[in-house]
Predict the structure.
Amino acid sequence: MTVLPFQFNEVVRLYNRVSKLNPTTLLEKEHGEPQDIVSISAEGKKKQILAQTKNEVLERIKEAM
């Protein structure tokens, strides 16, 4: 990584902030992050339900034979 002269003060301030933190504080912050949320559109839900229904019908037909 290259640090240009005009960035030097910012890098030193960041280093000072991070060096003052306890390692346990850093680990606790990682656990506090929110979980990813996935939302499925109405069309996606319909496709998923149709696929599940199709698979169930095909399985029942195979069992009946």
